[in-house]
C-alpha cells in the first residue's frame, strides 16, 4: 500500500513553533545530545531514520561532527530538509532521501550509528525495523532511539481520543518490549531509560504556553480553527502523559564486533 503523508503544513509549523526550527519531536538539540551521549561521533557515518525536517541531522553534523544520511517516508519533509541543508552549507555532510516502508535500502554494515527519534512509534513491525538497523550497522556500531511508548495497561479512551486529535499512525509498545526486541535480535549492552517525568513537565509547560502568550502567534500563523485544534490536541496529550499511559524513553544497543 502506498504511503499517505500525515504531516501537513500547519502541523509542521506548530511542531517547529513548540520544539524549535527543524524539529518534529521534543527536546531539540538537547535531545540529540542525550541520544549521542558517550558515543565517539566525529567522522562517523550516521543513519537518521525518520529524519523529518532535518534538525537532528544538522545537529549531528554541526555539534557532533558526523556525516548523516536522513531517510523519511514523506517526500515533502525530505525536500525541505534538503533545501535547509543547502542553505546551511551542509549538503555534503547531510544527505536526505525518501524511502518506502520496509527493508532499508542500504548495504550490510554501512553505518557506524543508527539514530531515530519519534519514528519507531509509528512502525507496527518493530522487530523487523530493529533487525534492519542491526543489519546496516558495522560491527561495534550503535543503535540509539528516542521514542513514544506506552504503559503496560490496555489503551484507554483518552488515548484513542488523543490519536484522533493527532491524526497520526501509532503502534505503541512498552519500553521493556523494545529491550526484548533488541536482545532477541542480538544487540549487546542494551539499555532503556524512561524519560516520561521529563516530558510530562515539558508538556504541561508547552500547554500553558499555547493557552497563553503563544496563542496569538498561533492564530496568526495557523488561523483560529487550527490554533484551537492544537490547544485541544496538547490538552489531550497532557491527559495521557500525566496519567502515565503515554510514556517517552530512550533505548540503545550495540552490534557485537563478532556475531
Q: What this model shows, in words?
A:
The chain is α/β, with parallel strands linked by helices and 259 residues long. It has a single domain (9-254), classed as Vaccinia Virus protein VP39 (Rossmann fold), CATH 3.40.50.150. It is built from 10 helices and 7 strands. The protein has a 7-stranded mixed sheet with strand order 3-2-1-4-5-7-6, sandwiched between helices. Strand 1, helix 3 and strand 2 (67-72) form a beta-alpha-beta unit. Helix 5 (126-136) crosses helix 7 (175-185). The protein is globular, with a radius of gyration of 18 Å.
Write the layout of secondary structure elements.
Elements: H1 9-19, H2 28-36, E1 45-49, H3 55-62, E2 67-72, H4 75-88, E3 94-98, E4 111-117, H5 126-136, E5 137-150, H6 157-166, H7 175-185, E6 188-194, H8 196-211, H9 215-222, H10 224-242, E7 246-254
Parallel strand pairs: 1-2, 1-4, 2-3, 4-5
Antiparallel strand pairs: 5-7, 6-7
Amino acid at each position: 500500500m502506498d504511503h499517505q503523508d500525515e504531516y501537513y503544513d500547519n502541523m509542521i509549523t506548530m511542531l517547529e513553533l513548540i520544539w524549535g526550527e527543524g524539529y518534529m519531536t521534543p527536546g531539540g538539540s538537547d535531545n540529540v545530545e542525550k541520544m549521542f551521549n558517550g558515543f565517539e561521533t566525529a567522522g562517523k557515518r550516521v543513519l537518521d531514520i525518520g529524519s523529518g525536517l532535518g534538525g537532528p541531522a544538522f545537529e549531528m553534523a554541526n555539534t557532533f561532527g558526523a556525516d548523516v544520511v536522513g531517510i523519511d517516508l514523506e517526500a515533502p519533509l525530505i525536500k525541505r530538509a534538503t533545501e535547509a541543508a543547502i542553505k546551511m552549507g551542509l549538503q555534503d555532510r547531510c544527505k536526505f532521501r525518501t524511502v518506502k516502508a520496509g527493508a532499508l535500502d542500504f548495504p550490510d554494515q554501512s553505518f557506524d550509528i543508527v539514530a531515530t527519534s519519534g519514528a519507531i512509534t509509528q512502525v507496527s513491525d518493530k522487530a523487523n525495523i530493529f533487525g534492519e538497523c542491526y543489519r546496516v550497522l558495522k560491527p561495534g556500531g550503535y543503535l540509539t532511539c528516542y521514542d513514544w511508548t506506552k504503559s503496560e495497561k490496555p489503551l484507554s479512551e483518552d488515548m484513542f481520543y488523543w490519536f484522533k486529535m493527532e491524526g497520526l499512525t501509532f503502534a505503541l509498545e512498552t519500553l521493556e518490549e523494545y529491550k526484548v526486541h533488541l536482545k532477541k535480535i542480538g544487540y549487546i549492552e542494551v539499555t532503556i531509560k524512561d524519560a516520561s517525568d521529563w516530558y510530562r513537565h515539558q508538556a504541561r509547560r508547552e500547554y500553558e504556553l499555547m493557552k497563553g502568550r503563544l496563542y496569538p502567534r498561533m492564530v496568526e500563523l495557523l488561523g483560529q480553527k487550527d490554533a484551537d485544534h492544537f490547544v485541544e490536541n496538547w490538552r489531550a496529550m497532557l491527559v495521557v502523559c500525566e496519567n502515565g499511559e503515554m510514556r517517552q524513553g530512550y533505548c540503545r544497543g550495540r552490534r557485537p564486533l563478532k556475531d
